[in-house]
Amino acid sequence: MLKSLSIFIVALFMAMAVSSATPRRQLIDDNWQFKLLSPDSTAGNADAWTNVDLPHDWSITRDFKADYPSGNDGGYVITGRGLYRKNLNIPAADAGKRHYLYLEGAYMDAKVTVNGDSVGRRPYGYSSVIYEITPQLHPGDNLIEVDVDNSRQKNCRWFSGSGIYRHVWLFTTPEVNIKPWSLYVTTPKVSAASANANVTFDIDNASDKACTITPSITITDSEGKVVATRTGKPVTASARQVTPCTMELTIDNPALWSPDTPALYNLTVSLAADGNVIDSVDEHFGVRTFEYSADKGLTLNGKPIVLNGGCAHHDNGVLGANSYDAAEARKVSLMKQAGFNAVRTSHNPPSPAFLDECDRQGLIVIDESFDGWRDSKTPYDYSRDIDQWWDKDIESMVLRDRNHPSIFCWSIGNEVIERKRIEVVTTAHKLASLCRKLDPTRPVTSALAAWDSDWEIYDPLAAEHDIVGYNYMIHKAESDHQRVPERVMWQTESYPRDAFANWCKVNDNPYIIGDFVWTAIDYLGESGIGRFYYKGESEGEHYHRNQWPWHGAYCGDIDLTGWRKPISHYREMLYNPDKKLYMAVREPDGYYGEIKETQWSAYPTWESWNWPGHEGKQIDVEIVSHYPRVRLYLDDKLIGERNVSRDTGFKAVFHIPYTPGKLRATGIDTNGNEVEEVTLATAGKPAAIRLTPDRTNLSADNQDLAYIVIEVVDKDGNVVPIADNMIEVSVTGNGSLIATGSADLKDASSYKSPKRKAWKGRAIAVAKSSHNKGTIKVKATSPGLKSHTVTLKSVK
Fold this sequence. Notes:
The chain is mainly beta. Helix content is 14%, strand content 39%. The chain has 5 domains: 24-173, Galactose-binding domain-like (Jelly Rolls, Sandwich), CATH 2.60.120; 178-285, Immunoglobulin-like (Sandwich), CATH 2.60.40.10; 290-521, Glycosidases (TIM Barrel, Alpha-Beta Barrel), CATH 3.20.20; 577-607 and 611-681, Immunoglobulins (Immunoglobulin-like, Sandwich); 688-795, Immunoglobulin-like, CATH 2.60.40. The protein has 10 helices and 51 strands. Helix 3 (325-337) crosses helix 4 (352-361) and helix 5 (386-401) runs parallel beside helix 6 (423-438). The longest helix is centred in the N-terminal third of the chain and has 19 residues, at 2-20. The radius of gyration is 28 Å and the shape is globular. Residues 1-20 form the signal peptide.
């Protein structure tokens, strides 16, 4: 009895010791202080210190203003220089351990000090960086300071945000550890029967004594079942040395990763000394095989695949650059729902959370490093830093990201200005070679663009790439294929309205393996690209002149609130024959004004049959379909019937006089049967607000988000697509309102405002959880409309 009690007490003590030990990886986003300095960057003339939690983008916290130096490119937001500080307490029990500070992203030129000592600087605002801060720390309170300087404008061609806009972590390890970012998993041999997992990592011994380390690896599947395990031979870790290790395991009957079945495995690497585990690292990975050639195209796991891709900037719309995990998950989900199977992270490495979601949800990634190289596109862009920092920034991207199964290719640049000079080939070679050295399993690309007659001059530059990216130049593909038949291509940027022509190119030519539209989602900055406008408004393209009050880009298939535009449904239908029927209405030219299109715009088309004042006048109803024939009815009266095929671009357009009522489009199969229908009905007057949250259960972690769609509806619950009511949103309980917005990029009111004018009958609000569990109530009101409240739950 006494012996059993003693064993129980010892076991309990050990469990308590393990549970109370400092985690290897701690998120330290809470309880920072922030001060925005004045434009002259002097600490004596600045805002007061305020308490903030990360992620924190100060650019999105203020009103948009036409005279801000960020200008049209940057989205007319405040920039400047900001200081962050945080008290970090190190327990006495962690004396003798090693500590690392991991900044996922701070824009830009972030200088880090610990207890007054400089530990590092990183000019490039999109790079993640890890600093070992062991020498600067001591038990008890320590001061972490980060100086973020975005005052030199312009330094970016789109909205960058300002501040520590991604997570910050503290790693705590023993003196002998698995070196950060050294763990690398590849699957060089894959079949239906088995997959070989090749695992490499570095043992970093910072102590003055050599020691014997026994490494072990365990691989589990998505359900937590162990599928492979191995204990390696003991390794001598020499004092003050890094010792590389390689181990190989076999997974039987592997589940393969793909966009349709994004199967993931978890790998745990442990180091043991004297029989005790001293360090352990987890990493997820996937088993998949990409192959490509000019004659066979692209295959994934032996099956042909065509990439229906979209370019995406790093911002999260109404949240600015703030990279909450839930926001990144939603962005990936929106792209998947729109039919995309690939994304190009234009023009910089994305957040780790975004890539995690691409892994989980199944979105193939081109991971891009830079917008430009040595010749500048803006006065203070990366051209000023490339010579000193290119290798460090490439290394950060590849080492951080190379275990993500979603990443198919590294991109080393975009539309570099110096493309005609011979030295550009040397630069491309250096960047590509470093990518291949750090990760020999993936191809390298970059996006080339030129409107010159001597396009062939770029052949030496193109030869440095495994796959050549064509921005808007896919019309050159056939002649290029004749000249360089082994070249594999993809269109890394394309105009939205060219969806059908680009699909034809990709569908008909195996050497063109995909198309990436500019862009998948509307974004902040590059103000006015993709806009249409009316006669009398500011004319021309976004690059011709400032387009204030436009502060964002309208070229996305998905708008800033997450609503899919008609062009999105059309593109999805082209690549997915299972999507068979969709209907929208082309805005009558002259209804609001004479319509003027721009280079990246699609003709204004809406899911609306509300056109008051247009009665009896002609209007175009557009049906896109994979059925051989479609019919259109108005109030159950047959309007007409059309053939639909590739020859018609899978479209049928009906020219009819506008009459309020209910439009109904039907798809007719080869037997002449109506097998599917979609409708658009004229909505009545605005009567109420309807709130629809994307989720009702949030984690009480001070990070989780709910996006609430706000709709103005008539008495029957139909969205009123011409409603523009002013709506006020409030959040009470264990959460907070962090943003409201609409898809109207000419609405220059702050996204932090609780008041938002509906646009086309819709708006959006974003609520954030706190650390407290309980309820979060979201209420929306508007004069003359019935209000609506939804209740969310915040759980531990």
